[in-house]
User: Which sequence fits this backbone?
């Protein structure tokens, strides 16, 4: 029988604590602070847009939209706050099996990979029997201000926000903008173009450090959306990424 001294036990506890701190630090890198997912019932398009005050360049992350998953003709999903790729993969698999957004979020809450669902945030919108269905989830341990708004064909969510006005303005812009799904998503993101929308970016004099928008048509290949645009800036640049994203967006629309 192996014997453990008090020193062994103490060292094991320290190791477990260290591992937890490392995991928490890694997860915080993937903090996506405000985002929207939506579908167009008429065209069958699915899309996502989002932004955050995380310095992706510091961690070597090149795809600003990795927290968003699009399945052409089926669904759009954002997994954020303390992001975990396994939770995201599980949700994607369930949605591909035609579980509803509500069923998926219920499953994720009960089967969180680290048994910490209260630190997660999700937004999902999908075609269910040909009609749009949306659902959102904001765990109770998300950092304030945190909440989500669900509409008929969209879900808007955010955490570490300046206040509820960030999400409310995103919803207002999405619903009041005429045009394609891409145009409505871009407008929604501009609703959050407020200094300190992500409260960590106040000193940077911007809403965020990166921003993205992507849209997949029904005949697009998975992982290859017709539209995918992003802007990644660094802390201290004092550049508004949503403004720069709009420039890229307008150029793409002219082509």
Assistant:
């Amino acid at each position: 029988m192996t014997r453990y001294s008090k020193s062994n036990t103490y060292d094991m506890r320290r190791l477990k604590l260290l591992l937890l701190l490392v995991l928490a630090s890694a997860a915080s890198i993937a903090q996506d602070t405000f985002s929207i997912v939506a579908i167009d019932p008429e065209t069958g398009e699915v899309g996502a847009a989002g932004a955050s005050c995380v310095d992706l360049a510091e961690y070597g992350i090149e795809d600003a939209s990795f927290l968003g998953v699009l399945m052409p003709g089926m669904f759009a999903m954002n997994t954020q706050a303390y992001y975990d790729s396994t939770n995201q993969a599980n949700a994607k698999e369930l949605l591909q099996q035609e579980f509803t957004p509500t069923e998926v979020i219920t499953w994720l809450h009960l089967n969180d990979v680290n048994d910490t669902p209260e630190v997660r945030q999700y937004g999902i919108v999908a075609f269910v029997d040909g009609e749009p269905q949306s659902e959102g989830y904001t765990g109770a341990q998300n950092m304030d201000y945190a909440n989500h708004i669900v509409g008929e064909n969209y879900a808007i969510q955010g955490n570490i926000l300046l206040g509820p006005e960030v999400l409310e303005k995103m919803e207002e812009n999405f619903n009041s903008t005429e045009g394609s799904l891409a145009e409505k998503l871009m407008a929604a993101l501009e609703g959050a173009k407020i200094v300190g929308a992500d409260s960590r970016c106040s000193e940077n004099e911007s809403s965020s450090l990166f921003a993205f928008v992507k849209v997949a048509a029904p005949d697009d290949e998975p992982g290859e959306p017709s539209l995918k645009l992003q802007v990644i800036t660094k802390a201290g640049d004092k550049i508004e990424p949503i403004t720069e994203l709009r420039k890229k967006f307008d150029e793409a629309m002219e082509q």
The two ends are 72 Å apart (CA to CA). Residues 34-254 form a domain with the Glutamine Phosphoribosylpyrophosphate, subunit 1, domain 1 fold (CATH 3.60.20.10). Residues 1-30 have pLDDT under 50 and may be disordered. The CA atoms of residues 38 and 110 lie 25 Å apart.
